Amino acid sequence: MSEEAAPDEPPTQVTDQPTEYKYDIAVSFAGEQRDFVQDVVRGLGLPKDRVLYDADYKAALWGEELTEVFTTLYRDEARYVVMFISREYAEKEWCGVERKAALRRRMMTQGAYILPVRLDSTKLDDVKGLLGTIGDLDGLREGVPGVIEAIREKLDAVMIKQTDPADDEPRFGEVQTSQEGLVALLQERPHSWRWAAFASVLVQRREAMSMAMRDHRLAFAHPTGERISTFEQLQELAANTMYDVEQVGQQMNGFLLTEAFQSVFGTADDETAADPDGIVHAATRLMDFYDRYLQLAQRVRGVAAPSRFINVLDTAARLVDKPLRGMEDFIEEYLELVATMPARLLAAEGKNIDQPVEIRIHMDNELLEELVRQLKDLAETDEGY
Hints:
By secondary structure, this protein is mostly helical. Helix content is about 55%, strand content about 5%.
């Protein structure tokens, strides 16, 4: 098959095309499958400046920083990326660079963008970042002619119909209030899915504990079976509660600072490195601290005690109020951040947004002083001894 002269550089503009893409297709493959891929590229019969195939751009790519160039090409400049999947493709570093760029684009676009063609027994789930739910072609069964025909049909459909502008609007992750919705979010992984997934778990766990929170606000607790009758026992329970509330806050702070917690979200500019199971687990464990605060209050209020101890017990139980408010404020601020993220990202025109949301957990010093005063007053009465 004869070779035409390769273009010196990628074209700067496209004429007579319905969209702004520089290329109709870009091909991503491992070198071991070059013969198959080249037969497909040449068999399509498209102008070379409409197909991103590395062999046609040797001069343009010579000396360039390829990581940056490929990221731009595979993320922004092709209508479709035809990805030829194989064992070698799953293993090679440069294939990973192209794949990450294409995946970032897919997260921002509705409809098909990555068109996988399997050239051996490798499954999509075996390739980092790809999901088995994406439709693919069996290249061994279809052969070069079948792959060519499928690509032509895909391109013809785009050229014939007037594309709905909504098809190219970015898709962003939304907070899910049901388990089914969360599962779908984790499978589809639209842009910013990792933050939406984390927020979804926070919301669902908080809803599951809403009855316990209502009980706490009503100062209600079921009897625990524990009984205290002396001032010393009361003093010990109050002190232990204070220490426990403080310890939960310290443990939460340490939890949030661990590398294991931070790593589940991937990096700022690479959502494909995020760990879906890790995000769900981390959010679940964070809400376990919320649950611990409620349990501490229930434990204190559930104690059977003389009536003269009731005010002290109620004050001790309310030591969790300020930390719980801190967690509630965090959840609401986080939900607002996720809700406004689409508009902020679009306004940022692709630039990363760094806006951390803090969990402010503090002991209520005024309530602590009140607790100490109550204990002191009780100790000074004859009944306190």
